[in-house]
Design goal:
About 5% of the residues lie in helices and about 40% in strands. By secondary structure, it is mainly beta. It folds into two domains: about 100 residues; about 300 residues. The strands form five sheets. It has an eleven-stranded parallel barrel. Strands 2, 5, 6, 8 and 9 form a five-stranded antiparallel beta sheet that branches. A hairpin with a 7-residue loop joins strand 12 and strand 13. The chain is elongated and about 95 Å long. The N and C termini lie far apart (about 60 Å).
Length: about 425
């Protein structure tokens, strides 16, 4: 198909959305809901009186979900229509109607003017050629600093490729912990969480993040939130920004849910998180590889992540998992394991493994092949079992509570150190 480049040059247009009372009943409570908050009142006299009273309540609210919207009754259509207009062009909102008790009801919510602006993926003017990307397109985001905050739900689209180069310094997605009050998502308030989409949801057969153009001064994006959905995707993170826009979380945060998807991470100073941003996130991939040349790289694998194969040769990894990991191979770096799952085969050639995962009712590690490096169980005092340890070389640091059912010792002289927790 076509190659589409992100420009972010559209003019901002304020959203206008409305809904009208369909059936009036004085016994019904009518309201408007945004996020986790509903403003409502009991029906009063007739539709028009009720509508006037409701939009007065809405306009008087200091709740940030409502205070950035001007509410009125749209008399051009019907005296019973509640209309909301964004006070900031390019800053969208979403509301639903509420009716409880009696026989009252609302008509459907509809946009009379859709949100659009320079930060909206769905705005055609933001793309070269004036066309929003469609299935089988190749999307390139490069040489740009315009944040992509809105129109993020593109889950019906599967691209051939998505390339986010390191020369792109804008942010993709929103911080779910803070409510964005500016059209570019840069101004936020911690008084409410973000109820709108925070990940860019789009499938792509190939994803490349942080590809350099050969310029050493390229700094990269401090926030890339990407959900590739239920289609297979080969994701490669070549480099990240050195820091994250969101303290304590990775600069690149990924969700992927296909058994054939793969995630390969090279240099990630700002960190790469997999299903590690919000509670309850999940991912399903076949393989995670973490390698590169920078020892300060970081990866954070969340407890909702299911994968079978893992490889590491550099950096520091925090690993949790939702199910058994079939194979872990370590050729360098530091791996810290936590959570309730089994590692079937762990081969440590070099680097350090701080093992603290503990499978309830099963083995923490079925087979440990210690060829080099350091294997330590001191990060946890929990009782757990390593079924078979094949020790050729390296350092094994154990502690009380760890049982090795079968230990195949190296030939010749060796030293095993066991330390009390």
């Amino acid at each position: 198909m076509a190659t589409r480049y992100w420009k972010g040059t559209a003019e901002a247009v304020a959203q206008i959305t409305e809904a009208g009372i369909n059936v009036f009943d004085a016994a019904t409570t009518y309201g408007i809901t945004i996020g986790d908050t509903t403003i409502s009142l009991l029906g009063d006299t007739d539709e028009e009186t009720t509508t006037d009273a409701l939009f007065a309540l809405l306009n008087a609210s200091t709740n940030v979900y409502f205070s950035g919207i001007t509410w009125d009754r749209n008399g051009a259509t019907t005296t019973s229509t509640i209309r909301g207009t964004s006070d900031t062009a390019g800053l969208p909102f979403t509301f639903t109607t509420y009716a409880n008790g009696g026989t009252g009801s609302w008509n459907a919510v509809s946009d009379t003017t859709a949100n659009s602006g320079p930060n909206d993926w769905e705005t055609a003017a933001n793309w070269d050629g004036g066309v929003v990307p469609i299935a089988a397109d190749d999307v390139v985001i490069t040489d740009n600093a315009i944040n992509i905050c809105w129109g993020l739900d593109q889950n019906a689209i599967t691209l051939d490729s998505l390339t986010i180069k390191k020369s792109y310094t804008g942010r993709i997605g929103l911080d779910y912990k803070k409510f964005a009050t500016a059209a570019d998502g840069a101004t936020t308030t911690a008084s409410k969480i973000e109820y709108r989409e925070n990940y860019l949801k789009i499938s792509s057969t190939v994803v490349t993040i942080g590809e350099k153009s050969g310029i050493d001064t390229e700094t990269g994006s401090t926030r890339i939130l990407l959900d590739t959905g239920s289609n297979a995707s080969a994701i490669t993170v070549q480099e990240t920004a050195e820091t994250s826009a969101d303290a304590g979380r990775s600069a690149v945060r990924l969700l992927a849910n296909h058994a054939s998807s793969t995630i390969h991470v090279q240099d990630s100073l700002g960190g790469v998180g997999i299903a590690a941003d919000d509670v309850g996130e999940t991912s399903l991939v076949s393989e995670i590889k973490f390698f590169g040349s920078n020892s300060s790289s970081q990866i954070n694998i969340g407890s909702g992540t299911t994968f079978t194969t893992y490889y590491q040769s550099a950096g520091t990894a925090l690993m949790r998992a939702a199910a058994t990991i079939t194979t872990i191979t370590m050729d360098g770096g530091v791996l810290n394991t936590y959570g309730d799952y089994t590692i079937t085969t762990l081969t440590l050639n070099d680097g350090t493994v701080n093992q603290a995962n503990d499978k309830t009712g099963g083995d923490a590690v079925t087979t440990l092949n210690l060829v080099g490096g350091t294997f330590s169980t001191r990060n946890s005092g929990a009782t757990r079992t390593i079924a078979t340890a094949n020790i050729t070389a390296g350092v094994f640091v154990g502690n009380e509570g760890v049982t090795i059912t079968t230990c195949n010792e190296p030939s010749g002289r060796y030293t095993m150190t066991t330390l009390a927790q």
